Amino acid sequence: MKPDTPHSRRGVPKGDKRERTRHALLKAASATIREKGYEGTTLDDVAGRAGMSRGAIYGNFKNRDDLFMAVAQDQWRPLLSEVALRETLTAYLRAIGEAVAEAALARRRGGVHAAAYRVYLHTHEEMRERVAAQDQATQRALGEHLLDAFGAEALPMPPEQFARLIHVLAAGLLFAHFDAPEHVTPDFIIASFEALGR
Q1: Rounded to whole angstroms, how far apart are CA atoms 76 and 111?
Q2: DSSP 8-state code for residue 2
Q3: What are φ and ψ of residue 12, in 5° steps?
Q4: How far apart are CA 121 and CA 69, in angstroms?
Q5: Of 99, 93, 98, nearest to 150 (Cα)?
Q6: What is the distance between the alpha carbons of residues 167 and 72, in angstroms, rounded to a whole number?
Q7: What's the sign of the alpha-carbon dihedral 79, 116, 34, 109?
Q8: Among candidate residues 86, 88, 38, 70, the one with its CA nearest the CA of residue 197
Q9: Would you say 160 and 184 are in contact if contact means Cβ atoms under 8 Å apart?
Q10: pTM of the full predicted structure?
Q11: By percentage, how much of the chain surpasses pLDDT 70?
Q12: Per residue of the chain (198 residues), what is the pLDDT tens digit?
């Protein structure tokens, strides 16, 4: 029998236990939030549901807000960073529109969860500021990406502002689709992004 190596314990990757623990906590937190809402969810609830101690939570997250942010990020993976560049800005914006339209359909069932998270942000200023700072950093990076890819002359406004507009439009169209899918259709979402490139 071969001895265990630093990279495996009987075929299990070294970091696997931590990843499994984190995944179980996120799953338990998400299920508890669906039942009790953000305000009603405690760390004891999450730990109990996951079959772990509060120490397991603090070993993976700084506090309840950090856990909630991780749940939101796990449920709502970023869209814009996953869209590959295209030859022109118009083609790139269409690709973003297609990604948002696809996400609108796929995430519609989770719309209530996402709306509850937004309410939680607006009632917890420190959390709102953390998310806003994170969004700003994402928008700054996207602005630099747009500037490098297409040049300032191709953009209708300064790069970071344009990136903010794309970000806000994506979020707004997602929630508008959840509210009125018969009006804010995938075709409408794509056309909205294409209009930015004209």
Answers
A1: 10
A2: P
A3: -95, 125
A4: 10
A5: 93
A6: 16
A7: negative
A8: 88
A9: no
A10: 0.78
A11: 92
A12: 444 444 444 444 455 888 899 999 999 999 999 899 999 999 999 999 999 999 999 999 999 999 999 998 887 777 887 888 899 999 999 999 999 999 999 988 888 888 888 899 999 999 999 999 999 999 999 999 999 999 999 999 999 999 999 999 999 999 999 999 999 999 999 999 999 988
Structure tokens at 116: 């509850």
DSSP letter at 84 equals P
Alpha carbon distance 198, 193 (integer Å): 10
Q: Which uninterrupted H or E stretch holds 13? A: strand 12-13
Residue with tokens 């796990």: 74
Amino acid identity of residue 26, one-letter, is L
Q: Tokens 């948002």 label which residue?
A: 100
Torsion of CA 108, 110, 113, 119, to 10 degrees: -30
